[in-house]
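FW: tagging you since you asked about this chain on Friday. Here's the raw sequence from the shared folder, copied in full. Didn't touch anything.
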Amino acid sequence: MSGPPPPPPPPAPNSSPSRPAPPPPPPLASTSSPVRLAAPSPCRPHSNPSPVQLVAPPPPPPPTLSTISSLAPTPPPLLGATSTPSPPPPPPHCHSSNQLSSSKENPSAPPPPLPSSFSKDAKNHGGGYNKGPSCNVVPPPAPPGGNAKLPGMRGHGPAPPSGTMSRSLQSGQAASRRSNLKPLHWVKVTRAMQGSLWEEAQKTDEASKAPVFDMSELENLFSAVLPSSDGKRSDKSGTRASGSKPEKIHLIDLRRANNCGIMLTKVKMPLPDLMSAILTLDDTVLDADQVENLIKFTPTKEEAELLKSYKGDKQVLGECEQFFMELMKLPRVDSKLRVFLFKIQFRSQVSDLKRSLNIVNSSAEEIRGSVKLKRIMQTILSLGNALNQGTARGSAVGFRLDSLLKLSDTRARNNKMTLMHYLSKVLSEKLPELLDFPKDLASLELAAKIQLKSLAEEMQAINKGLEKVEQELTTSENDGPVSEIFRKTLKDFLSGAEAEVRALTSLYSNVGRNADALALYFGEDPARCPFEQVVTTLQNFVRLFARSHDENCKQLDLEKKKAQKEAEAEKTKKEPEKTQKEAEAKKTKEPENEKAKNNNSIKELDISLQSPVQTASAK
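HL: got it, structure written out here
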């Protein structure tokens, strides 16, 4: 940061006003031991195209010769130094706390960059400044306009240019405070793409036009550890910084890293055991879902390059980064995981595909072999010709398969019956043995759920998976010992899988032939009426016929119940007439019975009267 040059320093008391300031004194020498001159600071280059004009703190006036002679025997004492013998020469840049505090109070003139030794020492002491005897006091920089040195100052080179100073201040402050600031989790671009704004920025040197950031402000705003009011870390944060584990370093996108951590918690095994399970293709340890998740979290090309460029301690990396590091130890880990997934799913894939192929074959054979279905189709043909007699649709030798469904669309004149109901009624009355024809089509329902296109895709996936296994087995021969167990396990699996796939391929070819033959059986073109359409049409016909037959049966039951009720009502109606006739007949018979009874009584009386007369005459 350059400003207007400060006023020239006042002349020394012992010098005349007209005489200019004396040249800088030579390096001081001690009579007891020679003084070694400090090497020029690496942070201050010797080139001096534009001297730096530092505003604060102001430099002291240059000393006179008498003062220099009085100060020649020994350098100024160190802060906190005792009467012990002189220590060896200190590092070239070790600043005192007073100097640092003054630089913080005046942000317009940031302090020189701290050396790496100071940063490490400060980090070891909880982030504070080291005030022990190992840090010598360094006086403020020399005033502009010359190479004058102050008493006790070890030799330094000329002041650096302003642009160099700004960059060095930035880099030095970033190095000393980098661990205290929260990181920006971005994806770094290491090579500017042609035509991008980054390439243009490199050509026009936009980096030099960027503003200089106040690191103190950044630390206050984005500090990873909250400072206390007195500027020192709180007890809790200081204890954590000194005694706890170091903060993890994250190189991968934070969201992806968190998802990867969740996935690893579901696996629940150490990384070495996980790598061993992958190399041995152990499906008793990892299932298909876990391997699929591992495939999702294999490092991308950019992530792999980012991790390869990391040269720090791997133990301080995050869980996701360490997991990626382990995966990167396996050659073509993505290919190995996909082969592993194919091995896990192979048995179930082959079993499911074989079951579907057998259903298709069984259904085609059942349909073509059903005699009852054939007779029903002939009955429908006769019914249609009877209805279409004398028209262009009559005298047909057959009909399209989808015409079966139109039987439910043709209604009777009373709008209560369809041709499907009528067909069921005729079969019930004349051919009842055909009513149970759906029993001949046991596999029809299952076959209607199968798509031959899906079977073809499954067959193709199995063949491609087997090809990937063969390719990986061939390629892994160059991996060395790391893939030795992997190759052996994969070779054993491949030998058995090839035999199963050959048998499956033969079965699949047979299915294609049966599907085409089924369409031809009904007089259809296999290209226009594929297997799926045939079985779906037959399935709907069976359902409509069964429903019509049930409705006919219900209608018959209703009619029987109705007839029974009418018979009972008729019987009830006839009973009163019979009772009345019986009553009338009873009334007619009662007088006759009374008359006959009276006649009998008269006869009995006559007989009784005649009996004494006859007895007397006999005597």
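FW: The two ends are 192 Å apart (CA to CA).
HL: agreed, and The chain has a mean pLDDT of 73.
FW: great, closing this out.
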